[in-house]
Amino acid sequence: MDGSVSNVEICNLAYAGHLEQLKALILTDKSLATKTDQDNRTALHWACSAGYKDIVDFLLNLGVPVDPTDDVSWTPLHIAASAGREEIVRVLISKGAQVNAVNQNGCSPLHYAASRNRYEIASMLLENGADPNIPDNIHSTPLHRAAAKGNFHMAQLLLKHRASTNLQDLEGNTPLHLACDEERDEEAKLLVENGASIYIENKEEKTPLQVAKGGLGLQLRRIVEGSN
Fold first, then answer.
1. Long-range own/partner contacts, residues 24-30 (CB < 8 A, 24 or more apart)
2. Distance between CA atoms of 88 and 194, rounded to whole angstroms?
3. For residue 11, which of 72, 92, 26, 61 has the smallest C-alpha distance?
4. Buried (b) or exposed (e) across 27-64, using 16+ Cβ within 10 A?
5. How many helices (H) and strands (E) does the chain have?
6. Exposed, middle or buried: residue 96 (CB in 10 Å: 0-12, 13-18, 19+)?
7. What is the pTM of this model?
8. pLDDT (tens digit per residue) in 81-92
9. What percentage of the chain exceeds 90 in pLDDT?
10. Domain spanning 1-98, CATH architecture
11. What integer is the mean pLDDT of 83-110?
């Protein structure tokens, strides 16, 4: 292939940012605006991926669906959130994109914003009804991801929007287990200050205190004792 991302010309034009050529093609055949390629992606998916807001605006103003799903159930909003396209996320939400749509991995757009530390995008999603407690296929929530990655301000934002601190993934780990295991000390303290239990056991029958390294366990215990 010639470096193109798609077997459909309109999708390649969207990904490359060629608005005028894309417009000209769609004027000859309106059905191209929603034509799907080998990944079941439309021009809207590809414009969101590459960050071309002018093409996104053009397509949405034509009336194309805002939430088409590709072959693994990613919507344009999933793609824009994951890629860090703030302005496009704003436009998609304004057009009614489903903020709690989940893909084949069970992930919502917020999962990707949290793990990739897209703070402004996460904030937009949460302010427009994103649920911070949706579990993915391994029962990991956005807070699990933020805690494991050491995204402190993201964890703060999620907690402010009522993210639950004590949900367990399929391994029985809470966000606190992950923060302790990854030596994310500040995130671990933040979680305990916001109600995370130091006593919940994971599948290996270990509490966050037993997973903690260095002096972190003692610091966490002091936070709990100080709040009682």
1. 26/62, 30/62
2. 33
3. 26
4. eeeeebbbbbbebebbbbbbbbbbbbbebbbbbbeeeb
5. 14, 0
6. exposed
7. 0.95
8. 999 999 999 999
9. 96
10. Alpha Horseshoe (1.25)
11. 98
